[in-house]
Amino acid sequence: MAEASNAKAFSVTFEDTFVYSTVVDDGSSLPRAVTIAFFATAAPVGEDLGERLKEHFKHVPMSEELWLVAAETLRDKAEMLLVDPELKDRLQRSSALATIRVVTFDVHGTWTEVTARAATDTFDVSAAQQWAQTAGLRRIFKDTGALLDAHAGLHYIKPGGTHTRRFIRAAAATARSAHANFVAAALLEWASAQSFERIWVDTASITGVGYALGELLHTLDERPLPRVDSFGGHEGLRNVSFTTTCIALISASTSGVLSKALESESVALGQQRTLFYIGEGTTQNVLCDMSDREGDTDHDLVTPWPSYERGDCPDCDNQQNAIVLRGDSFTPAPGLATPVTLVAKYSDAKHQAFSKHFFQKEVLSLNRHDNVSSSLRRPISVHLANYVATPEGRAEIERRLNRDIPFRTRYIIHADNPDALAIAEIAMQLCTDVGLKDVELISATTLASMTTKLNLGVSLVVAGVVNRGQDLLNISRRLRKLILGGGDIAYFIGVLRPPSQKLWDQTKSNLEWRTEGGKYALTHHWYVETESAAEEDSPWTQEADVMLTMKSWLKTQTSGDPVEAVIDARVAALSDELPGRSAFLNSDHGATNATLDMRLNPNFAFWDKAIGSRAPEATHAEVYFTVSTVLHRARHSQDGKYSLFEQPGFGNVLSAENFNRFNDAVIQAALLRAARGRELRFEELDNESRQMAAIICASLSNWSDIEQGGAALEFVLALIRGYQQLPGALRLADRHIDLVLTAGAGIPSTSAPLLELALRYLQARVAEARA
What is the pLDDT of residues 95-108, one digit of tens each? Predict the structure, then answer.
C-alpha cells in the first residue's frame, strides 16, 4: 500500500483512492468545508479508508462533510461504504462530520449525488462540482511538487527554446494511478463530446492520463479503447503526422506555444487540453489554471514568471549556467540543492513586535496538550489566559476592546478554551461598566445546542488564539442560523497566527460574508505568521520515539545499564509540557552532577534590541518559536526566491553555515528540531556535509563546554533521526559519518551518559545500514 505523498499536505493518496479537503460553494447555500474521497476504478476497503481519513482529519479537522465520489460503475460499492462498520467506527472517533454523501460521475463527467437527503438539505453537489474538481487538481499539483526551481547560478532552457528559472513537470502530478484517474475524470466533460481514435500526449510521462481517460470512456459508455501515443513535445512535433481522428493532451505550459504549434498541425484548439498552466493570457483549453491572478485568494496559486528568448536572457547575461530540458520526459540533468543561510529579514516587524511584547510573559509553551481530553501535543502553543490575568495584560485587552466592542452588543460568544473565556469576561465587564445590563455570556458548546433566536442585537464572537480559524467557522455557521430576523455578528481575536496571509484571507472571507451584503466586523489585536499549530512530526514526539528505540536496542546489548533510568525520566518528561529551559538536551544530560544550561547569549539577531540584552533569560519555548517562525517565513516567503522546497535534488536546504553563524547551543538545538522535510539532507552535498561534520566534531570534542559543545547530544540525536527516516532529520555523506563517530569516541558514560549511549546507538545504526 502506498503512503501519502506528503504527510503535512491537505491530501492523502493510497492505492486507487485520492483524498483531499476543500471549501465548496453551490452558489445558493453557505460555503462548507468538505473532504472528498475519490475513486474511479476500484473502491477502497472500509477499514483502509477509515484509517487514512482518521490520519487526514488530524491535519484537516474542519471538515463538515465527507463526499465519496466514484464512477457510476462503482455506485453499489460506494453505498456499501456508508454502512461499513469499520469505516463508521473510525469516522466517529476522528471527526465531527454532519453529512456523508455518495456522489457518482458519468461519462460526461457530471457529479450527481445519489444518497437520500433530508428535505432541509438543499445543497447542490452538481453546482459545486467545478469548485471541488479545481481544488483537487490544484491540490495534486501542489502536493506532488510539480513545479521545479533551478537552484542558484542555474536556469532552464525549455524544450521550446526559451529560458526560464522555473519549469512545470506534470509527470510528478500524474505518476500515481489515483491522480491520473482524477485528472482523467476532470477531462470527461470535454473528451466525451469528441470523436477520436487516438490520444496524443506531448510526453510519455503523462500517458497514464491518456490510458485512464480511455478506460473511463470505455467503462462508462462502452466506447472502443483508443490508442495512446506520445509525439515528443516540441522536438518530436515535426516527425508526427496527425492524420487519424485524435485529441491531444499537453502536460503543462507557461505560454501556450506548444498548443499553437499543434493547432498549426491541424489539431484544433477544441481537440486539445493543457493539463496544468501558469501564465498570462487565455486559458480556454486549459484543465487546471495554477496562475495567481488579480483577485485570487487561493494560496496554492503561483505568480507567473517570465521566459526569455535566447539572446535576451538576463541569467545568461549574468554568466549563469543553463540546464537544457530534453527528451520525451523533459527531465533535467541531476541538480544539487542550494544551501540557504538565514538572515534578519526573515524576522519581520510583526514577529519582532510579537516577541518583544510577550517576552517572559509565559505566553509560549512547548509540547502542550490542547486540553485534558486531547492526545494531540502541539510543538509550540500560544496561550493568552495567563497574560490576560496580569494587570498589564488586562489593561491591554481592555484598551482594544473599548475601541472594538459594538455598542449594540447583546451576546458575547466565546470559543471553548481559557484564552477566549478570559477575553470574553473582560468584554462582559466592559459592557456592564457602560450600562449594557442584558448582555449574555454564551460558550460555543452552549451555542451548539441552542434553539433560541439571537436576533436582539450584536453577537460578539471572541477568540483568544486563532490559527486556521476552524473554531470560529463552526461558531459562525451555528450563529448564522440563530440571528435570522435582525441579529448581527462581530468578531474579536486576541492573537491571529495563521500559516499565511492568503490562507487566513480565505477563512476571513467566509467569516465576514453576509447574505444581505456588506461584511460582518472582524478585528484582531496581535498578528504573527507561524507554522501550522498541529504537527504529527513534533520534534518532541520524534525524540520520544528515538529514546524508546535506543532503550529497546540497549536491552539487546546489556541489562541493568544505569542510562535506562535516564531514558525513562526523559520519556516521562516528554509526556507533559516542557517548561523553562528543559526542551533541549544539554550534552551532559543525565549525569549525576550535570551543570550545563543552554541559554541564549545577549543580542539575538532575530529579536528587537530592546530585549536583546535580556536574551539569557529566554525560555526554550521563546527560542524555538522564533527559530521555527523564521524558518516558516523562509519556506513561504511571498516572492518565492527563498522558499525551502523539499524536492529531492532541487530547491534549497539549510546551509551548514547557519550552525556557525548562530553558534549558541540553544539556537543550534532549535534549528535541528525546527527543520522540516529535506532541509538538513546533506548526504548528496559534499561541501555542506563536510562542513556540518566539522561543526559536529568540534562540538563533540568540546562536549563539556556549553559555549562550544553544549548541543553535542542534539546533533547526534538529529543524525539518529536520519537513520530512522524521520522528516526534518540530519543526514551526512557516509564518509563524514565516520569522522563524527571518531570524534565521539571516548566520551565517558559517567559524565555524559545519554550522549555516550546515543553515539553507541548511532554507530550500530551506521553498521546496520552498511551491512
Answer: 889 899 999 999 99
